[in-house]
């Protein structure tokens, strides 16, 4: 049987599954600033509108325990 654990990581010479997680380095992206040409503004009449804000609920994904994930190879 191939378990999900076998699909990740490297196989040792002895056939033991060793899971190695490397820390991902975050790459910083530099944003280029574009210069905008100024346009003449036209005066507009302002109307005030009341807006109702709807709150969206975000569903949180449950993360597996970090400790367990880091030491997964101990369980094999």
From TrEMBL:
Residues 23-76 are annotated as: Disordered. It comes from the Eukaryota. This is Uncharacterized protein. It comes from Cercopithifilaria johnstoni.
């Amino acid at each position: 049987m191939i378990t999900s654990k076998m699909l990740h990581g490297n196989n040792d010479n002895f056939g033991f599954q060793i899971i190695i997680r490397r820390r991902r380095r975050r790459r910083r992206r530099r944003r280029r600033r574009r210069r905008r040409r100024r346009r003449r503004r036209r005066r507009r009449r302002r109307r005030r509108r009341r807006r109702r804000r709807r709150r969206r609920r975000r569903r949180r994904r449950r993360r597996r325990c970090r400790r367990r994930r880091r030491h997964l190879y101990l369980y094999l």
